[in-house]
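Per reviewer request, we include the raw input and output of the structure prediction for the construct analysed in the revised manuscript.
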Amino acid sequence: MSSAPGNREDGVLPDRGSEEVDDSGGDSASGRQELEMCLGNNEIKSRAVVKYSAAPPPTTYALLQEKTDLKLPPANWLRESPQLGPAGSTVLGSSSKSKPFSSFGMAYDFIDSIGDDVDVVSDSENIKKLLKIPYSKSHVSMAVHRVGRTLLLDELDIQELFMRSSQTGDWTWLKEFYQRLIDQKWQRKKKSKEHWYQKAILSKFLYYSINGDGAAEPVPDSDNPDEGCGAEEFGPSWPATFTSNPSDTEESTAHKEEGVPMDSKYALGQVASKEQNLTTLFNEGENSQGLRNDFVRNILWTFEDIHMLVGSNMPIFGGGRYPAVSLRLRDNNKPINILTGIDYWLDNLMCNVPELVMCFHVNGIVQKYEMIKTEDIPDLENSTFSTRVVKDIAQNILSFLKSNCTKEGHTYWLFKASGSDIVKLYDLTTLCEEAAEEKCQNPFTLPVAVLLYKVASNMMLKKSQNRKHYGTIRTLLLNCVKLLDQERHPQIIASAHYMLAELFQLDEPPEDGAGGESLRAGGSEDSYSDEEEEEDHEDLPEDSDENASFSTALDSQDDSKAVAIIKSVGELSVPEKYKSTHQIRPIYAFPVSQDKEERCRHVLSYVLKGLKAVDGSIKKESDLPAADPNTPIPLKYEDGSKAVEKGIALLLDRAGPFQEDRKHPTRSGMIPGSWQHRMKLQLFFKASKAYYVLSDAATNLLKYGRALRYIKLALQCHDAYCSVSSTLHSRVLLFHSQCLSLCGDIQLMLAQNASNRAAYLEEYSYQTKEDQEVLHSLHRESSCQDQSGLCDCPPAFNMASDLATDPEYQLFVSSKCYEAAYELLTSGVVKEHGPEQLAQVLKRLGNIRNEIGVFYMNQAAAMQTEKEVNKSVSIAEQEIWKKSFSCFEKGMKDFEAIEDSTNTSLLLCNIGRLMRICAQAHCATSADLSRGEFSPEEALYYNKAIDYYLRAMRSLATRGNHPAVWDSVNWELSTTYFTLATLLQDYAPLSRKAQEQIEREVTEAMLKSLKYCDLQTESARQPLYQYRAATIHHRLASMYHSCFRNQVGDEHLRKQHRSLAELHYSKAVRLFLSLKDAPCELLRTLLERVAFAEFTMAGQNSSGAKLKTLTGALDIMTDTRHAFLLIHKELLEDRTETDGPELTGPLDSGADGHTSSGLNTTEVMKLIGVFEPSFSFLLLQLVKLMTAMKRKPSNKDEELLKTYKNVYSKILRAEKTAPLLNRVELFLDLLQQLTPKTGSVDLGASL
């Protein structure tokens, strides 16, 4: 459709501005447009999204009048024009070639799309050239690089490359290979004058179109376009070989930083480098090495199922029925051929331009305009082509490249000679290695490595989804490191190793389920290895249909170098001819291990490589004090608490939140603020965390020697961190407090497990080569070294992490570690960040102070046992008491600060025990070394102990808060009352107090002890409580018995004492009977009760009263049968175990009078010595009284009298020297005869 001359049609293209367009669903006026092309029955889907545009909103193009002479330049010719962008100048050829790294510039700017979302990144001219291969006889030469699923395509101008090679000597191996490949001597072809003529009038046409004045005054034709345009021939656009070094990087940082896009800032972790200023890693030559994204617009183009990120400089104007049109200039005498039609069609598709305006001219004179819809271009006369075929070509080429460009980091060369139908793919990286030339000779090496690094870095920054990509990230980083020379690019290598270390999460367990599976599978289907010995093509059948013609079974010698070939470009038009059967194998599976030590070793391996890269970029080793990395660093050890306190103080000084700003280089020569400085801080911190996790894991395995070694290394890493850091971040201080806490835990465990000291020392002394190398790097920055490289002052961490031999010293070090951690957590910077950690440290601090208090308390008890009986309390003892008490008090304050009532009560309980030890130490002795009276000092300390126990119970409030602790405190309180009462009763201070007062105090203490005897709750202590309660009743009964015997005058008081004695005797007997394991105590209580009855009878006058009392006493005596049954049972068990069942002789007892069953035979013999006369006396008195009775006895009385006489006769005739077992059996037989028939029990039966 043509338009009349002079008629202007205004068209408006949506304003794309210069911002990235949102990629989310829905069309927007800011650049998202979708266009579907239909050609007959073949539907081609094309969709384009403008991601970035530097061009202003398109303005209406100017329609030139007929007969306008385009050979005359307009007044504005070659002036900078935002509407044309670089198109106006490039048409003259000054920079017409695609820059060799144009795809990398786009990839850097849109790093989110690289690796997964996009299939191809390239200049639109390269895309068009590939899709025109079957139609064109022109040569094709492109460099291909793979990053994940994405292919980067760049023009590889082989002729220009060899022009440079002839001057510098680089790439000679490729030049020789190329000459053999095309079988002719290489020569450069010059462009024709017609070529430059057409470019010149196109440039003038575009400038006329934006002039706004159709009759613009032409300027005198003073320039020779041929001469000006020929500059391209002598102005090579190929970049210089990359020779970036650290010094260049440092110098060029300032003026290049402006060109770094915001989304390329490196924000991983705390490395505050500006994406390491990666663009500054390249020398900025005249054309910026081609690494900048200089395209006017970047478009995300989806062509069928192929996603491409393309760069385009095509000028777009407004006008026509649509908001955007493209302008084309055609010679009216030359028809549009198919190549030109495909060119126009693809340009419009990529840029979402719905129409093109064609201006026809004859010899530079404008003739007419014609408007053509984009979807009509394939049907133009003389240039008809099938859009479906173009789609098939695109899919086949992509499949071919993806199937064969499999190695990340390798540079592939796609080559088709002029006039040839064969397309070949070479691996230049492999060819370069075979040529034995340095890898830096490949100019793509550094951009590829940087791109791999940037893609990995971008994936790392995506916190929500990066775990499933860890395998891919690891592959990218390892390939990046392989491409680079550590001496030339230490910054990228160090950063890559740091990120590799970051992949291993040390502060969380590995995920199970889907997450874990994705890691084991490598996390990405496009993770590749370049370490395979087999070529990838060996996986493909040579003659399969789907493999088409790109086979590696090549005939010619030169073709044997190719990775794959397409034998005929015509096959690219066959649908799915090159559909890939190549299965992409996940070579780099991310190593997932449940073993913490293995994960930490991976981290330390990468940290060490990063440190080596940083160290290598600073100074040579000879410039520093030498230290052999294979020799363990000797560590000085100072004993004593003063040395510890000095070391901990130094440690706190180094770990303080603020230090002086560092303005001078560090010991190794690092400049504060440099990338080396920042990276080393992160590597030191990461190493410290790894060693911390190793130490924690070893602690859980009870390998305390290994744990101490690892925590020492963690603290050494922190010390090195402090040596180079001017300000410590709160997270660093928090982590350091964790290290100190763990160190305190380990020292405590070592003190408590002194028996395994030899094994711990062996674990502690072992050191791996990797640990030695890390130490070597740490000591490059350590400030505590002399000229020999050895420590000349004890570093702070030595005090905290040395393996000492003294448990007291270890406990002291442990407490100092906790104190240092506490001081860190209460400092201003950290105070708000670690409330939970502070509570844990306070709990540990309270615990270690309790442990030290118990240690001193045990020492005091040992000293008391060893000292002479009559020796008074020494000053040393008193000092130990004070130390123990001080530790307990401090520990109580720590637990009270976190409101831990349970542990507070335990410490109060321990202080109570300390007071009891103090009381025992004040035990008075008489002149004959026997125990003296109960002293006031003893009473004082026992009462203090009682106070602390009561405070402990008040701290717990109720048993429900912590039953075990409550029962423990309850028992100790009852024991203390009982001990106090027993000592008062047995060693009554009669010289100071009246008998009555002592009795009252004893009674009060006994009853209080009885109050805390928990007889109802079923527990392990219940039998102990029952025994104690029985003992208390027995002692009270004995005391009242004694009072009753000694009381004279006050009859009321005597009766009271008598009734109390009877009451307590009966309770004691009942409790002893329920125990079943205290026969001696039961027998003694019953005998005392019989004696009490005998004493009562002595004061009676009437025969009836005496008979009644004696009968009651005999009943009590009969109850002793229960005690003798228990004694008999134990004696039988002991004889069976000791001598066998056949033995009938006397039973022997041990030296201490105890049998193997625990029966005290000596005590039994003593009690029998009391039992026999008392039993005989009772029977004799009963016989006398019953015989002397005046009334006639009843048959029952006569029978009883007969029994009494019989029993009395037998007991008198009993042999005193008979074996104990026989005597006990005799007593049981006699007591059985006295027992009423209804209550008879067979011999040997248990209760």
